[in-house]
Amino acid sequence: MKPLALAHLLPLSVSSGPLHSLPSFNNRPKPSFRVLSSSSPFEPVRHESTTSKLEYEPGVLDDLFLNLFRTKMVEEVGWDSDEAGYDGLIEVANRLVMKSKTNSDTKEAAVRILRSLFPPLLLDLYKILVSPLAGGKVAAVMVARVTALTCQWLMGRCEVNSVDLPDGTSCASGVFVEKCKYLEESKCVGICINTCKLPTQSFFKDYMGVPLLMEPNFSDYSCQFKFGVLPPLPEDDAILKEPCLEICPNATRRRELAINAEKCPKA
Question: In whole angstroms, how large is the CA radius of gyration of the chain?
């Protein structure tokens, strides 16, 4: 849940204090790389062994966002992992995909999770009052900035960039994710598409009035968000036809059983 983006997940103001007090999952092993802090400017920490690789210390808000998102996902799935932190979140996302009878069920569940992260009145007011401004550009720029500020705990390093809009103009309403942690950790095209890309696109368009096209790259794990751009129809979206990743656990099992693993069974 690139998509679950979930998300593109919290109210537009990030300067106020936390609204929820949730248990922290602090006993997990340190991840293979650290995410950006959402609560402070980016401050790179250089390894002693190299000056080319940068890491970022997670902040208090990162833990808050992770715990909040995981809590809402657990409520939807009805199950929680024994694993702490991000590893546990990925296991819950896997359970969401496995328990759903169809891809549509997975997508609808992910949309419900995203909606539960916002006060309903906030979504309604944003769609009515902000989305129409300047042909939708104001709303698109705003959600792009909030996504980049609040979702690096989920996706990894990202930055706002300019994208081409359908009217022929360009706008700083894009978010480029350098290497999506959610995709890298899940190792699954189906989880990316059905718990992140498709539900996040639907959520922003249907509940915030902001069209969104997400373009994950399954070769380098980058992802381009294009707020203000409508996605193609499912039958015309080449991303939905992507094969399983070589490292996908489900694809590996299918190969071992001599089952066709060219297309992800959940994509």
Answer: 18
Domain boundaries, the chain: 60-257
Neighbours of 195 (CB within 10 A): 31
If one looks up domain 60-257 in CATH, what number appears? 3.30.1380
**What span, in angstroms and rounded, lies between the C-alpha atoms of 138 and 172?**
10
Measured over the CA atoms of residue 122, residue 12, residue 127 and residue 93, the dihedral's sign is: negative
Cβ neighbours, 10 Å, residue 20: 11
Q: pLDDT tens digits for 224-263?
A: 999 999 999 999 999 999 888 878 876 666 566 555 556 6
The 10s digit of each residue's pLDDT in 177-197 is 999 999 999 999 999 999 999
Q: What is the pTM of this model?
A: 0.76
Instruction: Identify whether the C-beta of residue 176 lies closer than 8 Å to the C-beta of residue 186.
Output: no
CB distance 55 to 33 below 8 Å: yes
Instruction: Please classify residue 102 by burial: count the beta carbons closer than 10 Å to its beta carbon, then call 0-12 exposed, 13-18 middle and 19+ buried.
Output: exposed
